[in-house]
Amino acid sequence: MTGYSQSEEDYLEALYIIGLENKVIRVKDVAQALNVKMPSVVSAIRSLADKGLVEKEKYGHIELTMEGALVAKDVYDRHQMLYAFFHEILGLPAEVAEEDACRVEHYLSPETRERLMKMVEYVRACQNDEVRFLDRFMHFVRTGQKAGPCEGCQEAKRGL
Fold first, then answer.
1. If you compute the radius of gyration of the chain from its CA atoms, what whole number of angstroms results?
2. Is there a single domain that holds both residue 35 and residue 100?
3. Which domain holds residue 18?
4. Rounded to an integer, what distance in angstroms lies between the CA atom of residue 4 and that of residue 65?
5. What is the spatial distance between Cα 80 and Cα 121, in angstroms, rounded to a whole number?
6. Is residue 129 scored above 60 in pLDDT?
7. From CA 87, how far away is CA 58, in angstroms rounded?
8. What is the DSSP string of 103-126?
9. 19 against 121, higher pLDDT
10. Which end of the chain is less packed: N or C, by CB atoms within 10 Å?
11. Alpha-carbon distances, residue 25 vs 6, 42, 67, 84, 119 (angstroms)
């Protein structure tokens, strides 16, 4: 965790995503993205501004400060990595992977986050191994049965 609350991280991530898509970030855009009322956004933005994470002109647009952008990008990157792990590796439906990534992104230790990222990178880089590993895993998920002995199991039996 970055030292910010889950709510603060959610707001920063939403600001970051909206900023990627639009030139300006407005209160109504944040309210819509987070499915909250505009007064809640105003209050959260005020709190984030007090912490030096955003700047907002009265009745104007919202901007992430340098520090706010760093925190927001970190939250966004955690979310993307978790989504990839849940969807691409565990084979969960996109909606479930998205929802779970939103929940889990706030609670990972840096060590766990790094290890999961390495796993995602490894599987993406090893296309031939990935297909065998993930296909065998998904067969196990669907049936509860291993798809026959894997190469590692065969080597263990032979004493290699």
1. 21
2. no
3. 6-71
4. 15
5. 12
6. no
7. 41
8. HHTTT--HHHHHHHHHHHHHHHH-
9. 19
10. C
11. 20, 13, 17, 27, 34
pTM of the model: 0.80
- Boundary of a domain, candidates 45, 71, 97: 71
Cα 104 to Cα 98: distance, rounded to the nearest angstrom: 10
Residues 6+ apart with CB under 8 A from 60: none
> Which amino acid, 66?
M
Structure tokens at 160: 């290699």
Are 30 and 94 in the same domain?
no
SS3 category, 156: helix
Given a cut of 90, whether residue 7 has pLDDT beyond it is yes
Q: Distance between CA 79 and CA 101 in Å, rounded?
A: 5
Q: Report how far residue 52's alpha carbon sits from residue 76's, in angstroms, rounded to the nearest whole number.
A: 19
Query: pLDDT of 27-71, one tens digit each?
Result: 999 999 999 999 999 999 999 999 999 998 877 899 999 999 999
